[in-house]
Specification:
The protein is α/β, with parallel strands linked by helices. The chain contains 13 helices and seven strands. The protein folds into two domains: about 180 residues, Rossmann fold (3-Layer(aba) Sandwich); about 120 residues, no CATH class. A seven-stranded mixed beta sheet has the order 3-2-1-4-5-7-6, sandwiched between helices. Helix 1 crosses helix 2. The chain is globular. The two termini are about 15 Å apart. The structure holds S-adenosylmethionine. S-adenosylmethionine binds next to helix 2 and strand 2.
Length: about 325
């Protein structure tokens, strides 16, 4: 998934994503209206281009009370967010290019009054959704509002996510209509905030397209799927390096099984790292990380770290010409 172009759908006013954005913005506005007087802290996890919060802050009466930190991994998105921050003169808004899953990045900003977890829960495993909800009680001050999203595709996990919040001292304030086509939830924290220790990982961002893919059903560890799904080498190195070496061969077998689910399998192998060729049925697992796929002129700063990493070496072994007939993820719908 290219997480910059993912935002383009916001520019189509009738699209599901644009409608979801308007709902999220309205909920942010209402949450700000309801905050007690005085300074406020807002954090946004995986903030993308920050369109939800920045468009609201720009003319909200509380704008100068709000100290905000937007954490987003893709530097192209943070550049866009930073430019919006600068032109709106939102001096108390920090845009940070970093892994939002790591608790280190929230130091000084927690417990917060408003927590945005939009566009995450459809991109991580269910275990990680529950884990992240659990972390929300360390991100939130008493009375804080969490605004979160999740698509409504089957199995609809919105009710379960509500339960997870409500088991942890959050009251449901608002939930979008099940027929809306997307899920937006608003929960208010009624408990006492627990300390947020640095050095912890809340989730591993995988991507809805990969989660929906065949490999997911083959039981390949999420770290390995994410590793092959489109983050930069820098991120692979830093975030997904925990995959144990001994698992490599076993996972290669599982991935091959997912990619070649019939007798052609034997012909297709060997196919994965350490072997020589690849004819994938699932383009996301074979294409290089998203940033390698950008036309040269569109590449962000990440390209500079792309050349010498071992993953890059593996990528160069893949015969990309073989994947041109693959339909890819075009039929997948964006995470809501
Ligand atoms: C579905 S988009 C949502 C963006 C924004 N929250 C919104 O709702 O408009 C997910 C975003 O998460 C970013 N992302 C992916 N992995 C991340 C990570 N580990 N840390 C921070 N951001 C991440 C992607 O680059 C992408 O911009």
């Amino acid at each position: 998934m290219d997480w910059q172009t993912w935002h383009d759908e916001y520019d189509l006013p009738d699209s599901l994503l644009a409608r979801r954005l308007r709902v999220v913005q309205e909920r942010i506005r209402l949450a700000l209206d309801a905050c007690p007087a005085g300074p406020l802290k807002l954090i946004s996890l995986c903030s993308g281009q920050g369109r939800d919060v920045l468009d609201v802050l720009v003319d909200h009466p509380r704008r100068d009370d709000v100290r905000a930190r937007l954490i987003e991994l893709d530097p192209r998105n943070t550049a866009i967010a930073q430019s919006a921050v600068t032109s709106a003169g939102l001096d108390q808004v920090e845009v940070v290019t970093a892994d939002a899953a790591l608790t280190d990045h929230y130091q000084g900003m927690v417990p917060a009054d408003i927590v945005l977890a939009c566009g995450i829960f459809g991109n991580i495993t269910e275990a990680d959704i529950e884990r992240t909800v659990d972390f929300c009680s360390r991100l939130c001050t008493t009375g804080a509002t969490v605004i979160w999203t999740r698509h409504r595709a089957a199995p609809d996990r919105v009710p379960l996510i509500c339960t997870w919040f409500e088991e942890r001292g959050f009251d449901r304030q608002w939930l979008s209509d099940p027929e809306a086509g997307f899920g937006v939830g608003v929960h208010r924290f009624t408990g006492r905030p627990q300390p947020l220790a640095p050095g912890e990982r809340m989730f591993t961002f995988i991507g809805y397209d990969v989660l929906k893919g065949a490999v997911h059903n083959e039981g390949v560890p999420a770290t390995e799927v994410a590793k092959r799904a489109g983050h930069s080498v820098e991120v692979l190195h830093r975030v997904y390096a925990k995959c144990m070496e001994g698992q490599q061969e076993r996972m290669n077998g599982k991935i091959s099984n997912a990619l070649f689910p019939h007798p052609q399998r034997a012909l297709a192998r060997p196919a994965l790292p350490g072997r020589t060729r690849l004819r994938p049925a699932h383009a996301m697992l074979a294409l290089p990380p998203a940033h390698y796929r950008q036309p040269q002129q569109n590449r962000g700063p990440r390209q500079s770290c792309a050349c010498s990493h071992p993953f890059r070496t593996w990528l160069s072994d893949v015969k990309f010409a073989e994947i041109t007939s693959v339909s890819g993820s075009g039929s997948l719908r964006g995470e809501r």
